[in-house]
Specification:
mainly alpha, 104 residues
Length: 104
């Protein structure tokens, strides 16, 4: 298998991710990077100006920073669960393969 230096590849991947994250902030001047909730509310207001939501939120974060923290925590927890499940299934598959190789 022809593989370049792993350290160089990893640094190139990290540089690419940083570039993709920073490029919109540098090249799109004066743009508002709002969330989907705000855009959905604006579109609903256009379609039906007197619309009232059916439900009220159970919990309203006290500030935008707290909302961002909760969102990031939820994303980290979800990523951890998905990583655990993938690792669990990969480990089970390797154990099955090892048992199958040792039984021959």
């Amino acid at each position: 298998m022809n593989q370049s230096k792993p350290g160089v590849s990893n640094w190139l991947l990290i540089l690419a991710v940083i570039t993709l994250a920073v490029a919109p902030l540098v090249f799109v001047k004066g743009a508002e990077f709002g969330g989907a909730d705000g855009q959905a509310q604006a579109e609903i207001a256009k379609v039906k100006p007197g619309y009232e939501p059916w439900f009220k939120p159970l919990f309203e974060p006290p500030s935008g920073e707290v909302a961002s923290l909760l969102f990031a925590s939820q994303a980290a927890l979800g990523t951890g669960v998905i990583g655990y499940v993938i690792g669990l299934y990969k480990g089970r598959a390797e154990q099955r393969n090892n048992r199958h190789e040792n039984s021959d």
